[in-house]
Specification:
Elements lengths: L3 H47 L6 H14 L6 H19 L1 H5 L4 E6 L7 H11 L5 E6 L3 H10 L4 E4 L13 E2 L1 H6 L4 E5 L2 E5 L2 H10 L8 E5 L3 H12 L3 E6 L2 H10 L3 E4 L10 E4 L24 E4 L8 H9 L2 E3 L1 H17 L5 H12 L7
Parallel strand pairs: 1-2, 1-3, 4-6, 7-8, 7-10, 8-9, 10-11, 11-12
Antiparallel strand pairs: 3-5, 5-6
Helix pairs in contact: 1-3, 2-3, 3-5, 5-13, 8-9, 8-12, 12-13
The structure holds NADP nicotinamide-adenine-dinucleotide phosphate (NAP).
């Protein structure tokens, strides 16, 4: 039998061997990066002659697209953008002294906890793909009032707001978008020259995700839940002309939301059958680490229904798996997450969001390590 000592010695030798090969590759990468910069510097000289600007966002987007198409992994979408984004930033710096000094506009997500947030992966990939030299950071904050003072003091250009601050942040803003005010929650802030404007892109994200698979107007829609996500989804459905029923565990919360939206209410435990076209789970039921839970009896589902889950970890919740088995059309929580992020991007940058890149970046991040491309 191999002793622990022998196994350790053999493991160390293998690590040293692999590290030696990594060092050799790093030398090649360094040489290649410098060769790339020499070419970029020559382009810089030509740009000076023709008066062309140093930064060319269209060219940078095209480079990213070409590289993504040819990428066979395991470099994921986010890391590919970080790696080549840094190379392109270095190329801008060898072309222009201004590019050395220009401070990058900062964007951020505020929440508690926030370490699990996929917003940094999604927005950083989107910014780099669009050739924007923006930085996106995650801040774990308990005092949202102080955080908003920080946004003003540091001129943070825009922010995503996540739990538990979506409601409490509202009193620290200068303006509220109409839907954010009606929903009673803000998940997006735009800093317009020191004026902080609050939006809710969750409702638009939900509606856009559904629109990929079904119309909403005049459809009977059952929303499970009456919390923050339910409010955004239900107000969005109502705005798009859907006919709403709220199903919720606690009667009080369900009835309050249903009354605000002129919707029907059924206590979740009493649902035995459902006459509806669309079912949307907005509760955390089914979310990791409780993947084996389901918010309602799957025997209620009919194959003509569209079933959506706002939970995106796991991507295929038990509810969605059961719905798929019945033959329903399913919409996962990733679609809503990506669309709400795309709307944030567009509010911040006034340019079209690279939705597919954002989706790929988040999808990669949700894959177990062993399955990364
Ligand atoms: N995909 C996206 O882009 C996106 C966006 C926002 C949120 N989300 C997800 O949406 C989920 C809910 O977030 P939230 O902000 O709405 O939370 P929340 O405000 O705390 O509301 C939770 C809702 O779920 C219900 N609920 C909780 N546990 C339940 C259980 N065991 N059985 C039945 N009902 C239960 C609660 O019912 P009671 O009223 O009876 O307490 C409440 O209505 C989270 O998983 C979040 O990650 C996803």
């Amino acid at each position: 039998m191999t002793s622990d000592k022998t196994r350790k010695a053999s493991g160390d030798a293998n690590i040293n061997d692999l590290r030696g090969r990594i060092d050799a590759l790093d030398d090649q990468l360094l040489d290649l990066a410098n060769q790339r910069l020499v070419l970029a510097r020559r382009i810089g000289a030509l740009k000076r002659q023709t008066g062309a600007p140093v930064a060319d966002r269209h060219r940078e987007s095209n480079i990213m697209d070409r590289l993504l198409t040819g990428n066979s992994g395991p470099l994921g979408t986010y890391d590919l953008h970080r790696f080549f984004g840094d190379l392109m930033a270095a190329a801008r710096r060898v072309q222009s002294r201004d590019a050395v000094c220009a401070p990058a506009p900062v964007y951020a997500v505020f929440g508690d906890p926030v370490a699990h947030s996929l917003s940094p992966v999604m927005h950083t990939s989107a910014f780099l793909h669009a050739g924007l030299d923006n930085t996106y950071l995650a801040f774990r904050v308990s005092d949202i009032a102080e955080a908003m003072r920080g946004v003003r003091a540091f001129d943070i250009r825009g922010a995503s707001i996540t739990l538990p601050h979506k409601v409490s942040v509202m009193t620290h803003l200068d303006e509220l978008d109409d839907m954010a005010a009606r929903i009673g929650a803000v998940n997006t802030i735009v800093n317009r020259g020191g004026r902080l404007c609050g939006y809710n892109s969750d409702w638009q994200g939900a509606v856009a995700a559904l629109a990929e698979k079904t119309a909403v107007s005049d459809r009977q829609v059952a929303v499970i839940g009456a919390g923050g996500a339910a409010r955004a989804v239900a107000f969005g459905i109502k705005k798009k002309g859907g006919r709403l029923t709220i199903l919720n565990r606690s009667r009080k919360n369900g009835e309050i939301l249903a009354a605000e939206l002129d919707a029907n209410f059924i206590p979740l435990a009493e649902v035995k059958k459902l006459a509806c076209d669309i079912v949307i789970n907005t509760t955390p039921v089914g979310m990791t680490p409780h993947e084996d839970t389901i918010p309602l009896d799957s025997r209620i589902l009919q194959k003509e229904m569209v079933v959506m889950d706002v939970v995106y970890s796991p991507l295929k919740t038990r509810l969605l798996a059961a719905a798929e088995a019945v033959g329903c059309t399913i919409v996962d929580g990733l679609a809503m997450f990506v669309y709400q992020g795309a709307l944030q991007f567009e509010l911040w940058t006034q340019t079209d969001a690279p939705v597919n890149i954002m989706r790929r970046a988040v999808q990669d991040a949700l894959l177990p390590e062993t399955e990364l491309i």
